[in-house]
Amino acid sequence: MKGLPADYLDRLRHAMQDQSGDVSILKSAQGHVPTVRFGIVALALGQHVDEVNACFGADGFGWKPGKEFGFTLFSASYVRLYALFNDRTGSMKGRLSPKAQENLETSFWQCAKVYSKLAEAKNDAWAQRGSENHWVTSMASNFLVAQFLKDIPAYAALNYDDGSTLKEQYEALLDYWSKWLDQRARKGLFEEDGSSYDNYTLEALFNLRDFAEDPILRRKADQFLDLAFVNTAEECLGTVRGGPKHRTKDDDFSPAFYPFLFGVGDGRCNYLLFTSGFYPSPISVSLARDASGRGAYSWSKRCPHFKALPKETGSLDPDVSIIRNGFATPSFHLGSHGFDTTAKVVWQARQQLWQGVVFTNHPMARIGMDGKSVARLNKGGEPGPSDSSIMTGLGARGSFGMW
């Protein structure tokens, strides 16, 4: 954490004190995500160490695989717990008890051996199965688990269910992530840009940035996160993200991690920022904090788009992009999506769209198209009924059907 700005460190200090509290959460559910996140903060502070390890060392604690991906969205918390405190490579070594560490290693392998596939690790950077936040979390956890276990004698000689070794999967996934970060930086950051789900995608990328043992990959992940926050900052007024957004489900347009990192609005800190040395570049901070100094400007950005439905492993096509257009002033931001209307295949990025204008005078001051199912398609690729609506007002919404 050395070298972080004094005001940010001060915010972290106060936030950690506020959240170091009620140890009774450890009794709520073994292996439950809030328990793991509480444990991360407590161990980082050196508090409740015995109680945390009693919980994490109990029989049955560990990651429980999801049905489709194995390492699903909340695996990022378990991966961070192990990466920080294991006694081999942890940045705060030895704060996990031997039994807690063993529980995590065993559960990681039981999940990885079934669900992590060498064939998927060897796909190009635009292959994707399912929605982006699930895919990114799964692939990041697959990579870091292979990294953790490949040098442990008890696991090094074991094979995944597809016959591959930990070393083979690690090397393939290292190459995959290097290409993924390169290609997304060049041709469109996220399919789910401005999404209600981007916190999950960012958590997985933070894990790469903080824990990849390869220094080049760590540097790429750090630079990619900075680019992602610049991308967000130029679309924000205060803590409200304007412009076109994909897969939005809430009225809250405040981007994940953004208010706390930049010290704008009422930003809450979560377990991840306490344990990461990431901080945005000065230009990102300036963009976020000085909306009036930015003046008036327009922007146009690419968002990759599917060329094959990802039921098994589909593919994004950066050359058939969704174009996100916006115009910003110190008083308002507005924007809309531009689609390739000849593209017959769509996916979540065309669903749950929001486009319109947000204003500075109130977090709910906005007028926009809130397209919750704007691209329901039948098998022939033709659009079905839409339940798009108009969102307006200060803290209230009025709507009517759009066809």
Summed up, what is this model?
The chain has 403 residues and is an alpha+beta fold. The protein has helices at residues 6-19, 33-45, 49-56, 75-85, 98-115, 118-121, 132-149, 153-156, 166-187, 198-211, 215-233, 258-262, 271-274, 282-289, and strands at 127-128, 236-237, 240-241, 297-308, 314-328, 332-338, 353-359, 366-371, 389-391.
The H/E string reads HHHHHHEHHHHHEEHHHEEEEEE
Structure class: alpha+beta
Intertermini distance = 52 Å
Largest sheet: 7 strands, antiparallel
Number of helices: 14
User: What's the overall average pLDDT, rounded?
Assistant: 84
Helix content, binned percent: 40-55%
Rg to the nearest angstrom? 22 Å
Binned strand content: 5-15%
The low-confidence parts are 373-403
Assembly classification: single chain
How many strand units? 9
Looking at the structure, what is the overall shape? Answer: globular
General description of the model:
- By secondary structure, this protein is α+β, with helices and mostly antiparallel strands.
- Helices cover 40% and strands 14% of the residues.
- The protein has helices spanning 6-19, 33-45, 49-56, 75-85, 98-115, 118-121, 132-149, 153-156, 166-187, 198-211, 215-233, 258-262, 271-274, 282-289, and strands at residues 127-128, 236-237, 240-241, 297-308, 314-328, 332-338, 353-359, 366-371, 389-391.
- The strands form two sheets. Strands 1, 4, 5, 6, 7, 8 and 9 form a seven-stranded antiparallel β-sheet that branches. A two-stranded antiparallel sheet has the order 2-3.
- Strand 4 and strand 5 form a beta hairpin.
- The radius of gyration is 22 Å and the shape is globular.
- It starts with 5 loop residues before the first helix and ends in a 12-residue tail after the last strand.
